[in-house]
Amino acid sequence: MVFVGPMGVGKTTAVTALSDVSVAGTDVRRSTLAFTEPAQDGKTTTTVGIDYGEWTDPEGRRIALLGTPGQVRFSSARDSVTARRARLVLWVFGQRPDAAFEIGRWLELLGDESVWGRTVASLALTPGRAA
User: Fold this and answer.
1) pLDDT tens per residue across span 59-71
2) What is the CA 42 to chain-centroid distance, rounded?
3) Which of 7, 27, 1 is nearest to 82 (CA)?
4) Distances from the Cα of 28 to the Cαs of 11, 32, 52, in angstroms?
5) Measuring CA to CA, which residue among 106, 131, 126, 99 is closest to residue 2?
6) CATH architecture of the domain formed by 2-130
7) What pLDDT is recorded for position 58?
8) Which of 30, 65, 71, 82 is the most buried (most CB within 10 A)?
């Protein structure tokens, strides 16, 4: 399961909260360049690679949990996991007036209908918490 969406929406938090194992995280301190994309709630770090965790479903199957970078400039890391057959959870900030536009923009960033058919969109009503 791959979590995608804008920076600060809660992708790393979701992987960390759901994982049964220690998460291999890729958060680093935000650079000056990164400040062109506004932080949510004073967030000082950003994901630069793929966060990895695992969850065991009730039937005992291991599910990989992947958190992706939200910044456009890290699209190559995101593309490396969304191009596969994984299911995607697209989170956007639901309290923003342009949430529907943001979903459309992210669907375009993710690819074509081969990716869209594996994607579920969810609205985060507050940073880091999806509805």
Assistant:
1) 999 999 999 998 8
2) 18
3) 1
4) 15, 12, 15
5) 106
6) 3-Layer(aba) Sandwich (3.40)
7) 95
8) 65
